[in-house]
Amino acid sequence: MFKNFKKQWLAYRRDPKSFFLFFSVCLAALITILALFFIIAYILVKGIPNFTPDLFDRTYTTENVSLLPALINTLFIMLLSLLFAVPVGIGAAVYLTEYARRGNRLVQVVGITAETLSGIPSIIYGLFGSLFFVKYLGLGLSLLSGALTLSIMILPLIMRTTEEALRSVPDSFREGSFGLGAGKLRTVFSIVLPCAVPGILSGIILGIGRIFGESAALIFTAGTVAEIADSIFSSARTLSVHMYSISGEGLYINQTYATAVVLLVVVILINGLSGFIAKKIGGKNTDG
Amino acid sequence: MKHIKEKAMKMLFFLAACVSIAAVILICIFLFASGVPAIREIGIFQFLLGTKWKPANNLYGIFPMIVGSFYVTAGALLIGVPVGILTAVFLARFCPKSIYAFLKSAINLMAGIPSVVYGFFGLVVLVPLVREIWGGRGMSVLTASVLLGLMILPTIISVSESSIRAVPESYYEGGLALGASHERSVFFTVLPAAKSGIFAGVVLGIGRAVGETMAVIMVAGNQAVIPDSMLSGVRTLTTNIVLEMGYSTDLHREALIAVAVVLFVFILMINLSLSLLKRREK
Fold it and tell me: How far apart are the CA of B73 and the nearest CA of chain A, in angstroms?
């Protein structure tokens, strides 16, 4: 081991350019990782001491700056968005992989539009939502408008992951099912989709992560009311929007830190979960 | 009966597939229909090249914001591209196996952190830092660039890494066989072969930087004038929309939607160049 180091060192002395390249690569990786850890550590260290029971009051007042209503609203919006985006995304992926012929024009067009959708910045989604759902369809600033906007945003993500998962199901499964006399529909629902569940789930989890972090698309669609929404037609702020509004006022720095901690913890949990599922899929592939 | 069910479900799946097409068409229609009349009323040159944005005086020139977006994005690339590509090289070719999984999940996490959290971090850490070192208010082109540079890192890293990994092993081995060191074969044979993929990653990063809103709004100072130095405040296209949308009416409101149209056209051009890049790769 030590001898190797020495040999390497001697080689580097003869070839400083290689050493420089090696050094800069390591430095860059170190910068990336340190930046991430500095952000996380800074938020956690500053935020955790600021957790008070007040922050989890059922109602928001300017005194307690409770984040609980926003958290509950976030869960509502998340469920609603998934309710729209998941069936549509899975249905679209099923059509693209199981029904459409390869090289079909529609498949290409859907691919291009999905790519376009995933490149559009969230503020444009926000404006579109406020023009279309809020004004044109008359839904007003509401949970529903926000959720519909977000569901378009996460649709390409769910479509793509589901499509990949469906394509990785071997054709022999489908042939076996047809051979036993099952129709196309039955094959899709009882053979192909169940096999693709882990992949679909990982897409949904990534979508949840995006919903939790989104703010620009929600300010003009779901609004910024800091109360728990009574119905899907009332305006409400999610946790990210809540954090943005209280950070802007400059009075609630401590509460903003605490809110940031909650958001970070959610994101870390979601990432851990999707990593876990990805590992499970990987494991299954090497077995079979 | 069964036949009908099959047909009906096929139709449903087909409709689901069409939703994304419909969404793109709707977005285009609604943005252009509300934004283009405003551009026509203001005058396209007045709008794009006017240097004064004063809605109260009916002056709607977005040139300062276009320049602002450009500066901030260029600054972000200056930081994000070298660090990102070198980190990708590290991950693909230098990283010990034992820490790879850890680094990879750290970078995924970095991509998942919400932009408000990045923005808040910028506000409480970077802004005071810039103020201490270089003076001024701290909310500046420089601050926004550094923050955005961090935010686009995960995009650049993951796209570049997978394209470096896609280069055939024989390239690397050929380099070694000719007597090059590990570093030299990676940098002078593998990396050039991966350049179109890396470029695609950079273009994706540009898209992210141009479109970022909430993080920039918290650290950029938001003055609607052309910045005269790295330390003066700046307003980008995206932040202009969020800052004024809440209280705008009539032409002002339509002008803001027109700003979104300009942004949308930028993003469409970026998407187009991406798909051209991909086509060339094949």
Answer: 14
> Among 2.170.150.70, 3.40.50.740, 1.20.1250.20, 1.10.3720.10, what is the CATH number of B66-244+260-281?
1.10.3720.10
Could you read off the pLDDT of A104-127 as tens digits, one per residue? 888 888 988 998 998 899 999 999
Q: Which residues share a beta bridge with B234?
A: B221
Q: Shortest Cα distance from B197 to chain A (angstroms)?
A: 16
Structure tokens at A225: 């009311």
Three-state secondary structure along A95-146? HHHHHCCCCCHHHHHHHHHHHHHHHCCHHHHHHHHHHHHHHHCCCCCCHHHH
Digit-coded pLDDT (tens) for B182-231: 999 999 999 999 998 899 999 999 999 999 999 999 998 888 888 888 88
For chain A, which domains are there? Answer: 68-287 (1.10.3720.10)
Model ipTM?
A: 0.90
Supply B279's token pair. 């086509």
CB contact under 8 A, B211 and A122: yes
B53: phi then psi, degrees, rounded to nearest 5:
-110, 95
**With a CB-CB cutoff of 8 Å, which residues 237-266 of chain A face chain B?**
240, 243-244, 247-248, 253, 256, 260, 263-264
* Confidence grade of residue B273 (pLDDT, cut at 50, 70, 90): confident
Token reading at A176: 């076996």
Angle, CA of A192, A197 and A202, to the nearest 5°:
140
Q: Which amino acid is at B206?
A: I
Rounded Cα distance between B259 and B249, Å, is 15
- Chain A neighbours among B 57-86 (CB < 8 Å)? 82-86
* Per-residue pLDDT tens over the stretch B96-107: 888 998 999 899
Long-range contacts of B22-25 (CB under 8 A, 24+ apart): B23/A113, B23/A117, B23/A152, B23/A155, B24/A113, B24/A116, B24/A117
- Give chain B positions within 8 Å (CB) of A42: 121, 124-125
- Give the pair of three-digit tokens for residue A181: 């006399």
**Residue A31 Cα to chain centre, angstroms:** 25
**Domain parsing of chain B, residue ranges:** 66-244+260-281
The verdict on B38 touching A (C-beta cutoff 8 Å) is no
Partner A, chain B 170-209, Cβ-Cβ below 8 Å: 181-184, 186-187, 204, 207
